[in-house]
């Protein structure tokens, strides 16, 4: 019989965190929903000691949306430092954090710079860890289409894309947390790779949106220049199972 474990999910009320909590509980594990809403705040350190007592692992999917590099870097770096210090004090075995594929290559984007600071803080902490770098979520494609829309069309970066469903991301994080620390990084991507514009086109078609979609080499990724492989894994990776078409039908 699999040993039941206590896993603290930082950001446990969000898109990925709530799915991870459900997966853990459905499997019979104890999942602690940790968020500032219930007095557990990784950035300030509030409530961490009590929440982490007796925990085997932590999944950190906390988030802040900001394009101020100083603000976002401080948030991710400080939160990760507080967490890993508290985890070591509590005897927690494994810290799992969600990051983004090729964050180190896209650090001209302020958000990516924040995620890179998060990765570096965790890796230098001395705590057992696994960094799971995911591609963009299916759930984010609507936001992307809106961000790149102008003058009746959608003009996107000329690069490859391999989006993944949030359900697959949550499953990979839970599997990582229940396993041994890798003390390194693993990549996670969806089951299909193709041009960025083809995924946007598929999404818009499903929504009955006939706006033209074009790829343009001059368009960057929210401030970060990109080449063909910037948004997809460059080597081995964990492959999700849910295609964009399946996700749209669901």
What does the secondary structure layout of this molecule look like, with pairings?
Blueprint: E1 6-10, H1 15-26, E2 30-34, H2 48-52, E3 57-60, H3 69-90, E4 94-100, H4 110-123, E5 129-134, H5 141-147, E6 149-150, E7 153-157, E8 160-161, H6 166-178, E9 184-189, E10 194-195, H7 196-206, E11 213-216, E12 238-239, H8 244-249
Parallel strand pairs: 1-2, 1-3, 3-4, 4-5, 5-9, 7-11, 9-12
Antiparallel strand pairs: 6-7, 8-10
What does this protein structure show overall?
There is one protein chain. Strand 3, helix 3 (69-90) and strand 4 (94-100) form a beta-alpha-beta unit. The strands form three sheets. The chain has a seven-stranded parallel beta sheet, sandwiched between helices. The protein is globular, with a radius of gyration of 18 Å. It is built from eight helices and twelve strands. Helix 1 packs across helix 6 (166-178). With 250 residues, it is α/β, with parallel strands linked by helices. The chain has a single domain, classed as Rossmann fold, CATH 3.40.50. Helix content is 36%, strand content 20%.
């Amino acid at each position: 019989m699999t040993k039941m474990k206590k896993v603290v999910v930082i950001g446990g009320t969000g898109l990925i965190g709530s799915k991870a909590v459900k997966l853990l509980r459905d499997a019979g594990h104890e999942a602690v929903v940790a968020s500032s809403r219930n007095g557990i705040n990784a950035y300030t350190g509030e409530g961490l000691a009590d929440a982490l007592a007796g925990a085997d692992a932590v999944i950190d999917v906390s988030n802040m949306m900001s394009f101020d590099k100083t603000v976002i870097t401080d948030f991710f770096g400080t939160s990760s430092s507080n967490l890993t210090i508290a985890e070591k004090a509590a005897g927690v075995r494994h810290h799992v954090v969600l990051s983004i594929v090729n964050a180190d290559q896209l650090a001209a984007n302020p958000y990516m710079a924040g995620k890179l600071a998060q990765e570096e803080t965790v890796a230098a902490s001395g705590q057992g860890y696994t960094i799971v770098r995911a591609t963009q979520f299916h759930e984010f494609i609507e936001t992307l289409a809106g961000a790149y829309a102008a003058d009746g069309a959608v003009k996107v970066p000329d690069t490859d894309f391999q989006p993944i469903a949030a359900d697959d991301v949550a499953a990979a994080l839970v599997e990582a947390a229940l396993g041994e620390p890798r003390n390194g990084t693993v990549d996670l991507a969806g089951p299909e790779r193709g041009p960025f514009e083809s995924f946007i086109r598929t999404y818009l078609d499903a929504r009955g949106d006939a706006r033209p979609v074009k790829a343009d080499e001059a368009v960057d990724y929210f401030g970060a220049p990109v080449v063909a492989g910037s948004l997809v894994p460059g080597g081995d990776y964990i492959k999700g199972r849910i295609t964009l078409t399946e996700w749209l039908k669901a």
